[in-house]
Amino acid sequence: MLEAVKRDGLALRYASKADKDVVLAAVGQDGWALRYASKVLQADKDVVLAAVQQSGRALIYALKELKNDHEIVLTAVQQNGLVLQYASGNLRKDKEIVSAAVQQNGLALRYAATQLKADNAIVLKAVQQNGLALEHAASELRKDREIVLAAVQQNGSALADASEELRNDRKVVLVAIQQNEEALMYAPEELQAKILNSSSFEGLKSPINMMNTNRKLGAPSTSSSSGSNIETKKTSSPNI
Fold first, then answer.
1. Is the pLDDT at 202 greater than 70, yes or no?
2. Which of the four, 131, 140, 192, 236, has the lowest number of CB atoms within 10 Å?
């Protein structure tokens, strides 16, 4: 059976779930195999560490006390930032762990403790990795020009979560539409009109995209279309 789990860790479901050598071999091949280990081995640090090194998602199946183990959680979020949601509340306040999580996946900011969502360095790192993480930043940092610029440079649609003042900032909006032309829909109507009619917008759009954006913004279309227009909505829902 040892050879079987070395080839396919999930074969542990048919093996001895209490044999540490077998379980270590299984989680080393596929960390998700931790789900089939005995409760005793799901509480064994060596086993859980081996599992999260292979797949951060394995943290889901670690017993509660190991979700509060700094080394295990740090290893897990370095492999998959979104498993921060399974860490203990205490470790979701830990700056080193949250920093590692958002560096791997900016959307992990969603699961950080409230005080770290207001930490400039953490939030900046998060939006540089994924601009849509701006949605999970504290309101005062969504007013921060450096952070918002970093977010829209990475994903123009992050403009939707910027403060009203920064959504009305021409430079911020231009940076956003340089990354994603459709981000213009998140700017105030008056600024939309000014940008659409300015040289700043020239050369950014293909004729088809220009027509689509004009239609979304309520501007007259230069061409008729028989199809219905469905506005694409941004989402930052994370998937592990």
1. no
2. 140
Counting every residue written for the chain, the total comes to: 240
Instruction: Return d(Cα 150, Cα 114) in angstroms, integer.
Output: 21
pLDDT confidence tier of residue 5, bands split at 50, 70 and 90 = low
The answer to whether residues 185 and 217 touch, using CB atoms and an 8 Å cutoff, is yes
Q: Which amino acid is at 146?
A: E
- What is the predicted pLDDT for the residue at 234? 54
Task: Calculate ∠ Cα 77-49-79, nearest 5°.
Answer: 25
Tell me the two tokens of residue 164: 């009203």
Q: Which amino acid would we find at residue 169?
A: D
Tokens of 178: 């340089």
| Helix, strand, or coil (residue 72) | helix
Q: Which letter does DSSP use for residue 192 in this model?
A: H
More confident residue, 59 or 10: 59
CA Rg value for the chain: 23
Rounded to two decimals, the pTM is: 0.82
Q: Which two tokens stand for residue 135?
A: 């949605």
User: Tokens in use for 50?
Assistant: 């081996």
Sign of the alpha-carbon torsion through 195, 200, 158, 138: negative
Q: What is the C-alpha separation between 101 and 119, in angstroms, rounded?
A: 14
d(CA 78, CA 98): 10
Query: For residue 30, how many other CB atoms are within 10 A of its CB?
Result: 18
